[in-house]
Amino acid sequence: MPILSLHSISLTIQNHTILQDVSFEVEEGEVIGLIGPNGSGKTTLFNVLSGFLQPTQGSITYKEQDITGFIPSRRAQMGIGRVFQHFGIFREMTLEENVLVALEAMPGEQRKSLGDLREVVKATLAMATLTDHAKEKAGSLSGGQMRLLEISRTLKSGNDLFLLDEPTAGVSPKMTHQVAGAIEALKKEGKTVLIIEHDLPFISKICDRVVVLDVGQVVLTGAPDNVRQSKELQEVYFGADPTT
Ligand SMILES: Nc1ncnc2c1ncn2[C@@H]1O[C@H](COP(=O)(O)OP(=O)(O)OP(=O)(O)O)[C@@H](O)[C@H]1O
Ligand SMILES: [Mg+2]
Questions:
Q1: Is 20 near ligand 1, meaning CB less than 6 Å away?
Q2: DSSP one-letter code for 234
Q3: Which residues contact 1 (CB under 8 A, 6 or more apart)?
């Protein structure tokens, strides 16, 4: 039984088709890469999955329940966690407070499963290599550090399904490696991850399967290496090669 199923999701905004007949299934414990050119609908699909946008057609099943009409907070309570393409960090709060506030917002059972929240805060800051900055305001961090704080906070939050929108954008290679390690650790715990990334080597390294979107439609799915070598990906993602 898949943990998540998308059934013919379409979204039209003001006569503009943004998603068209998107269907795929995600098994529990799978790490799926979602790739495609700028504007192909990847972030929009995450908005539909987390409930910020309602599809014009189609439905979503999560943990055997039809969640299509559920508001974002209800989906979050069901264990769907998200890292935004742009930040969700409170700049006036310290790093510790930023992590704690997110943990405290977790629904009861999920929060209980985390154990001592102070320990989770410590582990989160350690994951982001920001322990030395724990008492500083988040607004003083660099863009990449803020990104790391946000990723670590989401990854340590005890969710079941993670939606990661370009988690390594603006993050240095060493830390990208660390993010990959954190995702692999989640996979070992049986967690499910959907990840949008433009970094194909990163995607190949951590994903079981890749879904390629182009102009709001799924044009290809398969194992990362097969997708990377395919002619379709070359056409939609890299464009025509000017040297040939
Ligand atoms: N609320 C909205 N109203 C109107 N158009 C929208 C809305 N949200 C997204 N779009 C349009 O939908 C298309 C897909 O946008 P989306 O942000 O999903 O792309 P993306 O694949 O995430 O791109 P990128 O790789 O650049 O992040 C774009 O043409 C965008 O302008
Ligand atoms: Mg996007």
A1: no
A2: I
A3: 64
pTM: 0.89
Residue owning the nearest CA to atom 30 of ligand 1: 39
Q: Which helix (H) or strand (E) holds 174?
A: helix 173-188
What is the end-to-end Cα distance of the chain in Å, rounded?
45
User: What separation in Å is there between the alpha carbon of 118 and the centre of ligand 2?
Assistant: 33
Q: pLDDT per position in the chain (244 positions), as tens? A: 899 999 999 999 999 999 999 999 999 999 999 999 999 999 999 999 999 999 999 999 999 999 999 999 899 889 998 876 666 788 999 999 999 988 887 877 788 888 999 999 999 999 888 999 999 999 999 888 888 888 888 888 889 999 999 988 888 888 888 888 888 888 988 999 999 999 899 999 999 999 999 999 999 999 999 998 888 888 888 886 656 5
Domain 29-42+71-163+170-238 has CATH 3.40.50.300: yes
Other beta carbons within 10 Å of 231: 8
Can you give the residue ranges of every domain in the chain? 29-42+71-163+170-238
Q: Which ligand is nearest to the CA of 45?
A: 1
Query: From the CA of 165, which ligand is nearest?
Result: 2
Measured between alpha carbons, how far is 122 from 135 in angstroms, rounded to an integer? 12
